[in-house]
Input
Amino acid sequence: MINEKMKNYGNNRSVIRDLFEFGNTRRAEIGAENVFDFSLGNPNVAAPADVNKTITELIASKDDMWLHGYTSAQGDANCRKAIADDLNQRFGTAFSRDNLYITCGAAASLKIILTALYSEGDEVIVFTPYFPEYRVFVETTGAKLVECPSDPDTFQIDFEKLEPCISENTKAVIVNSPNNPSGVVYTERCIERLAALLSKKEEEYGHAIYLITDEPYRELVYDGIEVPFVTKYYKNTVVCYSYSKSLALPGERIGYVLVPDEIDDSKDIYAAVCGAGRALGYVCAPSLMQHVIEKCTGQSSDINEYREKRNLIYNALCAMGFKCVHPDGAFYLFMKSPIEDANAFSEKAKEFDLLLVPADSFGTPGFVRIAYCVSTDMIRRSLPAFEKLAAFYHKELGF
Ligand code: PLP
Output
């Protein structure tokens, strides 16, 4: 006998992976330059120059034992201090290294905090559309995932929908802003209302409701939009962060969990985070990267390049008649399918070698996600294919 649940997770590949594999086949058949693959959130904009420079300097100047050896289970003390100092300087907070646990990226951060908080009967609320792995992370801890629809016009939180989702079993709410896949950034007003509602419910049920903020895109915002730093608005906030997107290092697997002193049972939760890291086999994140983060935390890839891509694709697709959510951050365009069935629309797009992810697995059918973290040249070259796709539906539906 083997673990059937795990077998199913292994066999049921995500639709994103399926599209990527389809892309590989087509690239071999017709040449990579003719396939317009918008499936993966793999940043195309380079890491800041300091990142590669720091790696080279570290390799040249430090001994291998230090550079590649184990660090403390919760992460190198200097790395954690550098992150705390950077956050304090940018957000006026007062964190110390003891609030931080270094992880292999946001996926590990989420899995660790969900495992640390879990007790039997727990429910965890997510807002649709949401990163599909949340379901895997939540359900494999034993908790129940509760989907709360976002406002269909703005993709901000719909508080009338949220209130009935909260029950005495609610242990945590996950927010992801800037959002994958909508590109929406929650406004300060939205965060304030969320904090007020959760505080009211904590009082009503007599226990903490933790707000888990999943923030891999925190620095990737456009047009001067500010991302509220949520620990300042709601006491029981835990932050999951990753350098995958901000420093364009997704393959290096580095991020953190931040457990502020102010949250209820802070010391116990930090201990449970260390315990979860241990139980999941996630102790001691990659050491070379920890040393790089010590020097480079707080930096980000060139946001102007992303803005250029965002403007190019958003303006072009809107001009063709497609309805898109205006992305204020991250590097995803959320586009309404001209037909109800976004899977069928994605299949049709494949005929033009356009790889667009149907958003059903994000909990919002009827949309596709376009990851525009690809070369600007590819976006330009893809536009005639989008034109043909639009022309097909103009003819078919008069849309
Ligand atoms: N959360 C969101 C919203 C994401 O988009 C991603 C990756 O795309 C992750 C978490 C996982 O990030 P990481 O690669 O750091 O594990």
Observations:
- Residues 41, 105-107, 131, 176, 180, 214, 216, 242, 244, 250, 255 surround pyridoxal-5'-phosphate (CB under 6 Å).
- The two ends are 53 Å apart (CA to CA).
- The domain at 49-296 is CATH 3.40.640.10 (Aspartate Aminotransferase; domain 2).
- The CA atoms of residues 105 and 255 lie 4 Å apart.
